[in-house]
Every structure is written in structure tokens, then in C-alpha cells.
């Protein structure tokens, strides 16, 4: 085999590996932040067990995994049907491989923090409950789909109107992505942490529940007391005014702190108590 053929084959193998690696990476990015990622982790664990059973000659374990894998492909297609459909839609739009990288630019961050702080301060004075979610790296598409899709430009006035009592969208959460209100009236998972204060109501439990499985920044206005809270990574801080909230959101969105999402839950009370 000539040196030219060897080089051509080497370059072809390199391109082949690069394409496959990128496809796998894009699929993982697509699944990140959804419930499907836990299923992917389970499949990886099964693969590790299967490899280990071959090296350690664990006949029974290998037999069990091989029999499970015979129906595994069909099960994966059924379980991942929404994600497969979303991937194909993005591929058709060219969005799976050429989507722009989400970046919180300075101007956009300032717009987000200002509008949310103004709305939260207004709602706090009138003791109107609110639950506002700011998406960061972890995708929240699963929860956006549970609400009413808006895809509207973020403004304090719109947030105030969404959370007005006795209006169709005032219950549930508002989810914000890249400076847009993606959806309102969204349902969030409630935290099952047994150490949460009994004084905290459904809004706070929902905010804490989402923060335990994502890196979202969550703003909560208590309906009972008007106290403004910020939740990140399972940690709840309370007692913000408009200026303090603006500074805290700027800090979180410009320089996200690297904390474990499974960090110990704790609450620092700044004033009063809260209930929904």
C-alpha cells in the first residue's frame, strides 16, 4: 500500500470518527435537561455491566443483559419518541448541527434582569404571587410544553399581566429563554426534600423542585407576604427588594456559579415567613 493510500485512509478514518462523535455530542445536548437523560444514563450503566461481565466471565449477568437488549431497540424508540421527533425536526430545519450557541450577552442580561426586577417589585407590593424561571444551560423544553406557548418579548408589563389573579395564566410558572417569555402556566416538579420548611407553599416547593434538577435561576414572589425569593441549585434566598434582586440576577446570569445541583438544601431567611 502506497503512502498516499495510507494517508487517505487515515484522513478518512479521522473524518468518520469526528462526524460520529459530533452526532453523539449533539444528541446529548438535545437530551440534556430533559427526563430522557436519566434513561440514557441507565443505558450507559447497562453497557458498562455488559462489558464488565465479559471480562469477569459473569455468564448469568451477560445472558440477562443480552436478552434485555433483544427488545431494547424497540423500547428505546418508544421511550424516546418525543426526543427523536424533535431531533428530526431540528435536522430538517438545519438546527441540529448549525444552531447558534446560547450566550448571555451583556445587553441581553441587563434587559432580562431589569424587566424581571421591575415586575417582581410591582407584584411584591401588591402581594401577587409569581413564579419566574430563567433558563440557563439545562434545557427546560419538557416543562415549556406543559404550559401555554407564548414566545413573546420579555417585558415587565407582560409579566405583571400574566400573574394578575383570576386570569387564565396566573397559575403555574413563566419560563424565560434568551430574553423571550417562552410559555406561561407551566407545571414544575415539586421538591421531595423532607427538610423544607412547612411554612413554604406550592410555589416555593415547585421552584425548589426544578432547581434540584436544573441550573435555572428562579424568582418567586410570595402571595401571602409579598417576599421576593431567588432559588438556585436547591438553595433559597429571601427578602430581596428591586435593586437587590437586579444585582443578584446579574451575578447569576453573567457568572454562573459552579455548584452541585445535589447540594444540601438550606434556606436563609432575611425577613418574615412565607406561605402560598
Summarize the structure.
This protein has 276 residues and is of the alpha+beta class.
Structural summary, described in words:
- By secondary structure, the chain is an alpha+beta fold.
- It has two domains: 3-98, no CATH class; 106-268, DNA integrity scanning protein, DisA, N-terminal domain (YojJ-like (1), CATH 3.40.1700.10.
- It contains eleven helices and eight strands.
- Strands 2-4-3-1-5-6-7-8 form an eight-stranded mixed β-sheet, with helices on both faces.
- The longest helix is centred in the N-terminal third of the chain and has 29 residues, at 3-31.
- 26% of the residues are buried.
- Residues 98-103 and 256-276 have low confidence and may be disordered.
Helix content: 40-55%
Order of helices and strands: HHHHHHHEHEHEEHEEEHE
- Supply Rg: 23 Å
Largest sheet: 8 strands, mixed
- Structural domains: how many: 2
Query: Would you count the extended β strands for me?
Result: 8
SS element count, helices: 11
- Mass-distribution shape: elongated
From the coordinates shown, what is the CATH architecture of the largest domain?
Answer: 3-Layer(aba) Sandwich
